[in-house]
Design brief:
Length: 386
C-alpha cells in the first residue's frame, strides 16, 4: 500500500483530522491516535451505536491504534517525543497556541525529528484576528459567506447536508501532507502545514465568485447560474411529493430536454442570463414535473441525454447500484456496514482494517515498543499518565 511504513501521530478530534488520518490508515499508514486518559475522543459518545461503539467513531477511526497519554505531564510529553522521533507525520487540531503550551508544537517535535511533516488543522488558521475563536463547521461556513449561498425559498439560510469545511480541510490536508512527504524524499526536509477550514471554503468558491470579484457584490440566491437562477440547474417537486434535479446548464442538455417535452421554443430561454430571464422555463418545468411521480420521471429520463437525478436520501445513496459497484459500502465479518474508500489505486488498493480501537487499547503495546517495562507501564498507569 502507498503509505506502508509511514507512522502518523494523530492528536485530532471530531471530523476533519480523524477523517484525514483514517484515509492514511486505509492506505497502510500506522496511525497512533493519542487520547487523554480521562477525556477520550468525543465521537465515542456521539450518535447511534453498534455493539457498544458509536457509528460516527467507527466511521472515522478504523485501522488506528489508540494510546492514552496526558500531554500536560512531563512523563506524557517524554513518551510523545519518543514516539515523534520515530514518526513521519504529526497531525493536530487544537486551537492555535495549545500545542505550544503543551510543548509538542512543530518546533519542539522538529528538535527530535528534523524531517517531520507536521500539520495543524484549525477553524481559522494559525494567524489572524479569529485564530483563537472556537468554531465548528457551521460557524466557519457562516463567517466565510458560503452558508449564505444555501437558502430556502423564503430566503432563510439553511443548514447544509454536508459539513463542507470539515471535509474540504481534511482532503486538502491529505494532499498537503502527501506533497510534503514527496518533497522530503527529494530533499530530506520536513515541513509545517497550516490548514484552515475557512481558507478551504473560500478556496472552493471558484464557481460563485464571479459577482464578488467582477461586480463587488455577493451572489444572490435564486439569481445566479448555480444558485437557483437557471432552469437547468434546479430542484423540482414531483407528483408524489418527492423531488428530482436538473444539474447541467449546457445548451445541448436544454435542447435535448425541451425537444423531448415538445417545447423546443423554451430551450433558447435557458441560454439567457440566470434569474428573471429564465423564469418562463422554470415555471414550465415546475408544472411539468408535478405531472408524474419521481419513479416515472426516472424511467422517462432513461432515454433523454440530460443531467438528471432523483433526490435520494442517504440510505438510498449507499444502496444505489453505482455506490455498490464502486464499493462505497463495505460489510465486515459481523455484517456491520462501513463507508468505502474513495481513493482507488490500480496497483496498490487500500486494505481496510475495520476495527476501531477501544480507548487506550494499544497503550501497553506502544509503550513496550518504546522499551518501557511492565513495571514502568504500571507506574505510568497508576499516576494517570496513561
Amino acid at each position: 500500500m502507498k503509505l506502508e511504513g509511514v507512522r502518523v501521530l494523530d492528536l485530532t478530534q471530531f471530523l476533519p483530522g480523524p477523517f484525514l488520518t483514517q484515509m492514511m490508515a486505509d492506505h497502510g499508514a500506522d496511525v497512533v491516535k493519542v487520547e487523554h486518559p480521562k477525556n477520550p475522543e468525543p465521537t465515542r459518545a456521539i450518535g447511534p451505536e453498534r455493539d457498544g461503539t458509536s457509528v460516527y467513531f467507527a466511521a472515522t477511526q478504523r485501522g488506528k491504534r489508540s494510546l492514552t497519554l496526558d500531554l500536560k505531564s512531563d512523563d506524557g510529553r517524554e513518551i510523545f517525543m519518543k514516539l515523534a522521533a520515530a514518526s513521519d507525520v504529526v497531525v493536530e487540531s487544537f486551537r492555535p497556541g495549545v500545542v505550544k503550551r503543551l510543548a509538542v508544537d512543530y518546533e519542539a517535535v522538529r528538535a527530535v525529528k528534523d524531517d517531520i511533516v507536521y500539520a495543524s488543522i484549525s477553524a481559522f488558521g494559525q494567524e489572524g484576528p479569529l485564530k483563537g475563536r472556537p468554531a465548528h463547521d457551521l460557524a466557519v461556513s457562516a463567517l466565510s459567506g458560503v452558508l449564505a449561498n444555501s437558502r430556502a425559498q423564503n430566503g432563510e439560510p439553511v443548514i447544509p447536508g454536508l459539513v463542507a469545511a470539515d471535509m474540504l480541510s481534511a482532503t486538502l490536508a491529505l494532499g498537503a501532507i502527501a506533497m510534503a512527504l514527496f518533497r522530503r524524499e527529494r530533499t530530506g526536509e520536513g515541513d509545517y502545514v497550516d490548514l484552515a477550514m475557512m481558507d478551504s471554503l473560500l478556496a472552493a468558491s471558484a464557481n460563485n465568485v464571479g459577482p464578488v470579484f467582477a461586480e463587488g457584490r455577493a451572489p444572490r440566491s435564486g439569481h445566479e447560474r448555480l444558485l437557483g437562477g437557471s432552469a437547468m440547474y434546479q430542484i423540482y417537486e414531483t407528483a408524489d411529493g418527492a423531488y428530482v434535479v436538473l444539474g447541467g446548464t449546457e445548451a445541448k442538455f436544454a435542447r435535448n430536454l425541451f425537444r423531448a417535452l415538445e417545447r423546443e421554443d423554451l430551450a433558447e430561454i435557458c441560454e439567457r442570463a440566470p434569474g428573471a430571464e429564465q423564469s418562463k422555463a422554470v415555471e414550465f418545468l415546475r408544472e411539468t414535473f408535478k405531472t408524474r411521480t419521481q419513479a416515472e420521471w426516472v424511467e422517462w429520463f432513461q432515454s433523454v441525454d440530460v443531467c438528471f437525478a432523483p433526490v435520494n436520501d442517504l440510505r438510498q445513496g449507499f444502496d444505489h447500484p453505482q455506490a455498490r459497484v464502486r464499493e462505497m459500502l463495505f460489510e465486515d465479518e459481523h455484517g456491520h456496514e462501513h463507508i468505502g474508500v474513495p481513493i482507488k489505486f490500480a496497483r496498490e488498493p487500500a486494505q481496510v482494517r475495520f476495527h476501531a480501537p477501544g480507548h487506550g487499547e494499544h497503550t501497553d503495546e506502544i509503550l513496550r515498543d518504546l522499551a518501557y517495562t511492565s513495571s514502568q507501564i504500571a507506574d505510568l498507569r497508576q499516576a494517570g499518565i496513561v
